[in-house]
Amino acid sequence: MARLLALLVLLFFTAGIRAELEVVIQPRNDAAKQNIEAYIGPISADSRQAMWRMARASREQALSALQALGYYHARVRPRVTGTDAKPVLRLDVSLQEPVRLDEVTLEVSGEGAEEDFFRLPRSRHLRPGAQLHHGHYEDTKSLLENQALRYGYFSGRFLDNRMLIDVEQRMADIILRYDTGPRFHLGAVSFSDTPFDEDLLQRMVPFQPGVPYDADLIAKLNRELLASGYFDAVQVSAPASEAQDLQIPVQVTLNARKRHSLGFGGGFSTDVGPRARAEWTQHWLNSRGHSRGAEMELSEPRQKLSSWYQIPLTPPQSSHLRFFTGWQRENIDDTDSQSMVLGALLQRRLANGWDRSIGLRLEQERYSLGADSGRSTLLIPSLGFQRTVSDNTMDPSRGYSLLMDLQGAKAGVLSDIDFIRLHLGARGLYTLHERHRFLGRLQAGGIASNGFASVPASLRFFAGGDQSVRGYDYRTLSPTDETGDRVGGRFMLAGSLEYQYEFIPKWRAATFVDHGNAMDSWTDPMKTSAGVGIRWVSPVGPIRLDLAQSISDPDEGFRIHFSMGAEL
């Protein structure tokens, strides 16, 4: 018995799979065909006779599908073809002239009627003479209701919403009158129990109690709390049902992240070779949200050890005061340096989206540049601005990044020399027709000093390498001394234009031209290189492999460059 039942079930599904629906429309209309198929859905029949029993219902469904598109006079004739083993239901459709719009009334009243953000649709599908489409009518209703909910008009309602269809005259009227009612406001924000002070949490709220309701503010509060780094889960709710006097209380449920995290990483690039990295962070060490951490980086040309202590400001998620100290040793070709640094950095996110940093650090460095060596002590104030705008953090399709870093020192104020150093950078990315990507990069810098010979190696400019002028090894473009050793330049200018084509998902071919140099005078010659490459958007980020050739110095030969990281 069980075997027989299983066989019957198998035969049922097998028969259902072999049944087919064929829709033939004159004149051809893909939208009407797809709507009919969606209305009827999958069909199953185990014989031609069974298919005929379905034909009438399928015809009625097809007529409903056509009426939804304005075809009230369409004719549908069903036929059954094929065999008992593979029956086919064929629907021959003659569309006829559709119903068209005569009068369209769209009105909004109430408090929201005067607001610019509460807009009426301007669709060509809702103009007199347009073909009637039930979907556009329903979309318009949804748009008005969704706008009301987004901006806090929770008591909004339709005073009138009708479609008046004169089938004989092939004309229709649409009437939509919506009353927004009063606008609700956001009230006080309350938080679930956390290890943090209430004052710290309230400083993360991006609005004041009493502001008009906007769903974007709720979403922003959620993002800002997650961006603080204190929580691994955030849930924000503002139920209109709990409003009093049009004030909606905002309730936030928080789950604090673990205090400590330890991370290890590594990588490889042709600039520095293999590198290893270790990082320890205590994300919060008291109720005021203070944090601290330490980092270590090891590679053949560079070794670095640093630690920091951070105090949140207002707003805590984007403004902080960081104290730091660190040691670094760097040995690249003709330069060797060791430095110790102690300083503080005040970072704040400005209202225009820029990140501003104001710093002060005391730096001691022993350096060797070619045949020269020395030791410098510098008290360096700094000012920096940075902004990145993109549609995706890991693999953007368009966006840009800008940065400016200005620093200097005054001889006699805990410094050996006078200098001012300016570094500018810009990147831009644009994607055309999903597959064609255009990437531009420009960086420039300069140093003004009355004692440039005493400027340490870490502050001088070098070019060449993965992020500068490909076709040359890392930091090999530089002025040289009388012995031919590279000693770094007063100025630097480097730019790149790159085209990428995505031939399969996540894989792109690239071609590029780089131009630039580090020099002591703007009149010094520049270097140009060109090459091709491959890009792979891996789960851990974009990976780049380039083959570049110097045009200015053909004898340099080809160089392979490998690197990882975001393009902006």
Which overall shape is indicated by the principal axes computed on the Cα atoms?
A: extended
Strand share of the residues?
over 45%
Task: Report the major sheet.
Answer: 16 strands, antiparallel
Beta strands, count: 25
SSE class: mainly beta
CATH architecture group name of the largest domain: Beta Barrel
What order do the strands of the largest sheet run in, or round the barrel if closed? 10-11-12-13-14-15-16-17-18-19-20-21-22-23-24-25
CATH class of the largest domain: Mainly Beta
Number of domains: 4
Distance between the termini: 67 Å
Sequence stretches where pLDDT stays below 50 over 5 or more residues: 1-17
Q: What is the share of helical residues?
A: 10-25%
Pfam families: Omp85, POTRA, POTRA_TamA_1
Domain Bacterial surface antigen (D15): 288-566
Subunit structure: Interacts with TamB to form the translocation and assembly module (TAM).
Keywords: Cell outer membrane, Membrane, Signal, Transmembrane, Transmembrane beta strand
Brief digest:
With 568 residues, the protein is mostly beta strands. It has helices at 2-18, 30-40, 48-67, 134-150, 198-202, 215-227, and strands at residues 20-26, 75-82, 87-94, 100-109, 157-166, 171-179, 185-191, 231-237, 247-256, 260-269, 273-282, 291-299, 302-312, 320-332, 335-349, 355-369, 372-390, 399-409, 419-432, 436-449, 491-504, 507-519, 527-538, 541-550, 558-564.
